[in-house]
Amino acid sequence: ELPPSEFMQVADSTWLVLSVVSNGREPPGCQATGVTKIARSVIAPLAEHHVSVLMLSTYQTDFILVRERDLPVVIHTLAGEFDIYKEESGECVPVTCDDVSNGFLKPKPAASPTLHPVQSPQNRFCVLTVAPDTLPAIATMLIDVLFYSHSPPWDAATGSQDLDSITFFSFSLIEGYISIVMDAETQKRFPSDLLLTSSTGELWRMVRIGGQPLGFDECGIVAQIAEPLAAADISAYYISTFNFDHALVPEEGIAEVIQLLQQRQESSR
């Protein structure tokens, strides 16, 4: 419904959404949340089969976006570990490898993926949700933040490991569920009794991936972050955007995360 415009840039590919539903066999004592939970079983195998993914973590769950043309490879890659269903007219219908075997292409060997630089801004972030019936009460504040909060001038030193702050606000509305990511300073502008967060009220620090816009064809960008964090059992939420990728990790673990990622980059040289 959006009219064509010189101001709107649209990626060529059409993307499909995968959501991973647990069957209750999660190992006991597994505390990691967010993208870390599905790193080994979904993200790493897709990266090994050269499937580019976009990642969207929300307050409620995680979604993986894959290009429509990659669906045969995705199904063949994941069918060994998952029961796969597609939604047809609101019903979940089982999918078998036979349904897409004609389109399956075995992955070709590829060079090791580029390990992109990571930056950690100093501001702290909150992962929140809002009850849909209270959304009108904060609508004007949402509009103000989305459309009238101007980004600070971008520092030319894009290669630095630490930024003073980064302007980041994410709002998603998926099947009636609302998820918001905002920094702690922006949160102060909203009525505290309407924003819902976890009982611990924890704050998150961000790791931004990429010194230049990443594009959509490269594989293994999400795995670059998710795999080492999964190995260390560190929770993370991950949000891919048009230009960059962003991982949110618990505030108290940011130093360990930066160290892990720097060690990974150094070992790949």
Automatic annotation (TrEMBL):
Superkingdom field: Eukaryota
Record localization: Cytoplasm, Cytosol
Residue ranges annotated for the Cytosolic arginine sensor for mTORC1 subunit 1/2 ACT-like domain, each copy included: 116-199
Gene Ontology molecular functions: arginine binding; identical protein binding
Keywords: Cytoplasm, Phosphoprotein, Ubl conjugation
InterPro entries: ACT-like_dom_sf, CASTOR1_ACT-like, CASTOR_ACT_dom, CASTOR_fam, CASTOR_mTORC1
UniProt key word Transmembrane helix: no
GO-annotated cellular components: cytosol
Residue intervals of the CASTOR ACT domain: 11-78, 201-262
Keyword Zinc-finger set for record: no
A biological process term (GO) from this entry: negative regulation of TORC1 signaling
Transmembrane segment boundaries: none
Family of the protein in this entry: Belongs to the GATS family.
Annotated function: Functions as an intracellular arginine sensor within the amino acid-sensing branch of the TORC1 signaling pathway. As a homodimer or a heterodimer with CASTOR2, binds and inhibits the GATOR subcomplex GATOR2 and thereby mTORC1. Binding of arginine to CASTOR1 allosterically disrupts the interaction of CASTOR1-containing dimers with GATOR2 which can in turn activate mTORC1 and the TORC1 signaling pathway.
UniProt subunit comment: Forms homodimers and heterodimers with CASTOR2. Interacts with the GATOR2 complex which is composed of MIOS, SEC13, SEH1L, WDR24 and WDR59; the interaction is negatively regulated by arginine. Interacts with TM4SF5; the interaction is positively regulated by leucine and is negatively regulated by arginine.
Protein name: Cytosolic arginine sensor for mTORC1 subunit 1
Organism expressing this protein natively: Gymnorhina tibicen
